[in-house]
Amino acid sequence: MFEKLKQVKDYRVKAKQIQSALKDEHVEGSGGWGKVKVSMDGNQEVQDVTIAPEMLVANRAVELEKAIKDAVNDAIKSAQKKMASRVKEMGGLPNI
To answer: Which residues are within 8 A (CB) of 73 and not within 5 positions of it... i.e. 6 or more apart?
Structure first.
């Protein structure tokens, strides 16, 4: 039983190390032909959103909404790829 508790503790320590390392990674996603950009850290927290001025016109609201959604999804995919690569570099997580 104590061996299982030690394994759980080891997993938590490893997960914290990975989370800390990913905090320093940055990815960017874009939508609307590059007119909307979202940057996030490796933990998938949005850090910045940039919208080109021509997207801020009232009659382009639907297009802007779609571009933001696309940019966020693109950034999430990039963060997931970076996370998988980083976890692999750090030795991965043991089978739970």
So the answer is: 29, 31
Look at strands 46-51 and 26-31 and give their pairing.
unpaired
The CATH number for 2-89, chosen from 3.10.20.30, 3.30.1310.10, 3.40.50.700, 3.40.50.1440, is: 3.30.1310.10
- What the block records as the tokens of 63 is 């297009």
Looking at residue 93, its pLDDT comes to 63
Q: Kindly list the domain boundaries of the chain, sorted by start residue.
A: 2-89
Neighbours of 37 (CB within 10 A): 20
| Reported pTM | 0.71
Report the alpha-carbon distance of residue 35 to residue 48 in Å, rounded.
Answer: 14
Pairwise CA distance, residues 70 & 17, whole Å: 30
Which regions in the chain score pLDDT beneath 50? none
